[in-house]
Structure formats: C-alpha cells, structure tokens
Amino acid sequence: MINFSRTILKNGLTVICNTDKSTPFVSVNVLYKVGSRNERDDKTGFAHLFEHLMFGGSIHIEDYDRHVQLAGGDSNAFTTNDYTNYYITIPASNIETALWLESDRMAGLNFSQHALDVQKQVVIEEFKQRYLNNPYGDIWLKLRPLAYRVHPYRWATIGKSPEQIEQATLDDVKDFFHRFYAPDNAIVSLSGNIDSDKALRLIEKWFGDIPPARTPQQIIPAEPEQTEERRLEIPGNAVPADAIYKVYHMGARNSGNFYTCDIISDILSNGQSSRLYVNLIKNSNLFSGIDAYVSGDTDPGLFIFSGKLSEGTDIRQAEKAIQHEIDKFIRDEITERDVQKVINKTEARISYSEINYQSKASNLAFFEFLGNIDLINTEASRYAEVTTAKIKETAGTLFRPENCSTLYYLK
C-alpha cells in the first residue's frame, strides 16, 4: 500500500506526496498534460522539441543541468503521445534546489532565436539518426498513419518530418508554451524523505504564484472504428532481415479491455515458454525474433505483433504462421494456470515498482493523469479480475481481419 497526500493549489497545480524514510533522496516528478496528441497536424514534433527547450535555460537560470549537478542530483525527461514528464532525483536536504529549478522553467523559458535554432538542430539530428538512418527506424512513421486516419496518434512523438521541426518559429513555441506549460496543466509528485506537510509548504512557496493558463479543454478527434483490413508493403530497405507488423485497435489505458489485452500479449509472447517463441522461433525457426505487446496509450491504442524473419522465410509464410497462432488462441482452451502465471508475474512487477521511490513519484503522477490515482494501489486487482472467459471474448473481437493493419518491411 502506497500512502500519499493529494492537494490542488489555487492556481490549479495538482500536488501529490509520498513519504519514504528509507532513502535520503527525494524524487521530484513534474508531468505536463501535453504530448504529440495535442499537436496540430501541420506543426508536429512540438511536444518533443519542448522537452529539449526546457533544458535550454529559463528566465532566471541559464544552465539548468549545472545546478542539478552541484546539488548532487540527476535529472531527465521523456515525451509520450499523451504527456511530457520531467524528473529530478536529489538529496532531501537540497529539495528546494529542485523546486526552484522546476518552478522557474514553469514560470517562463528563456526564449531566444539562438536557443530555438540550437535545439531544432539537435532534434532534427535525432530524427535523422534514430528514425531515418537507423535500420527499421522509420517503421512507426509508416505504420501509424496506416493504423490511424483521424486521431493524432497517426504521427510519432518525434513528428511527421524534420521539415516541420525546421519550420517552427519563435512565436510558434511561445504559443505552445503558454497554452500547455502552466500549473493548471501540470502534476507535481514527490516521493522520498520528506513529509507531506513540508512538501506542500515548499511547493506552495515556489509554485503558488505562477498564474494558470486557463486554456480551454482541447477536443481530440476520436478514431472511427476500422471496418476493412489495411495493408502496406515497403520494399528496398537497408536492413538485415525482413520484418512484419500486424496491429489491432484496442481499448484505452484505463479501460478493462487494456488489462485483458495486456494479459493476452503476455500469454502469447512473454518469455521462452510462450506460444509465439516456442512455435515460431524454437520449433519452426520461421522468425529470429517475435513479440506481442500493447501500446498503453491513454486513448484507444494498439495491440501489436512484430517479428523479424529468419533467413529464407517468405513474408507471406510468416504472416500465415502468425495468423495460425492467433486462430489457435481464439479456438483452443486457455487454462486458468496460463492466466494465473501471467497475473503472478504482473503482481510481482507492480510490487517491485512500489519499492523504488523514483517509480512511485512517476507512477503517482501517471495515475493522476489517467484520472484515477487510486490505481497506484488497485491496479493489481484489475489484472486479477481478468478471466479466461473474458480473454476468449476479447480475443474474438480484437483479432478480426477488418480490425487489422499489416506492414511488410522488406529488404
């Protein structure tokens, strides 16, 4: 059981604190409710660009990283489709340094053309290295718009193209900041060696005077139900092996469907005793690697099969083999033992995350963002509620051909 306090300041900032006296450190996590899903389709990659700009200096602090290091801390950040997360781990005695740094950049960045130009080039190089010049790197740039036609999940967090990042102006980024980087669009969560009363007092001191943005709630277009199978074949790639991806639309992160699909993915592919590994790698040698997993997006996401083929395997033969495993999963009995084994592993993973104060700070912010912070203590029970009957029912609906998008990525 993770105990926590939750308070909303007058400016709309949500504050969550978990006290953990077993560590001399505190993890300060700041989650902004903005990801690639909040971008315009002609100005993509902004959420990720801002992750970089946030380390480029704020109004009163030119070198963010230097102050973190001088205080004996460590910091980082990441961007998802749904939110952007920043975190600092720091000795509890230096907690105010972390709060000063985070509050100053929430209050305002040091916007300059030079800083923007530098970070644009950093992100463009990242785009090229990770997505355009890396084997298999552009798969999701192709697969997302195949699976999504309306929802902004149809582009990656890096953006649609380097050109859109290059075209970002100073006015564009200022507008983006003032709409999304504000206390009433943020969650500050702490876990570590600090009492809740002290944490709240210090956060009120450093963040309380930052004005809210009061940005109108954004309406994200819902993805319509897919009614026909979609296929895309991309030949001539400089890769060592052909690859296949099959993706199916599934439920949102806080739906019961997510937990059922997550268990299905683990039964199919978690470990060397899983069905896909035994049948498609070990026994038949059709694949050198294959996986099934869920995207875990806030809005309805994707159930994904991804596989790299062994030398000599025909791509259509590989797809038939995956489909054969899907058909068997729908048709054949799933035992209580199969399900319980996965649930036990999941409960162990959740229990482990409760030990680490950094994980607790991050998870508290995430579940608050989902709209149900109590999941920090009840998510294991959501998995335990999944039955064999529910798995069979879900698989039959999920794995319909008309709900599938298939990508052949060929040498």
Verbal overview:
The chain contains 15 helices and 11 strands. Helix 1 packs across helix 4 (113-132), helix 3 (95-107) packs parallel to helix 8 (196-207) and helix 12 (336-353) runs antiparallel to helix 14 (375-384). It is of the alpha+beta class and 411 residues long. A hairpin with a 7-residue loop joins strand 9 and strand 10. The N and C termini lie far apart (50 Å). The longest helix is centred in the first third of the chain and has 20 residues, at 113-132. Helices cover 43% and strands 18% of the residues. The chain has helices at residues 46-53, 64-70, 95-107, 113-132, 139-147, 162-166, 170-180, 196-207, 256-269, 275-282, 315-331, 336-353, 357-370, 375-384, 388-398; strands at 5-8, 14-19, 25-32, 74-79, 84-91, 186-192, 230-234, 243-249, 287-294, 302-309, 404-409. 42% of the residues are buried. The strands form 2 sheets. The chain has a 6-stranded mixed beta sheet, sandwiched between helices. Strands 7-11-8-10-9 form a 5-stranded mixed beta sheet, with helices on both faces. The model has no long low-confidence stretch (mean pLDDT 95). It folds into 2 domains: 5-207, Cytochrome Bc1 Complex, Chain A, domain 1 (2-Layer Sandwich); 230-409, Metalloenzyme, LuxS/M16 peptidase-like (Cytochrome Bc1 Complex, Chain A, domain 1).
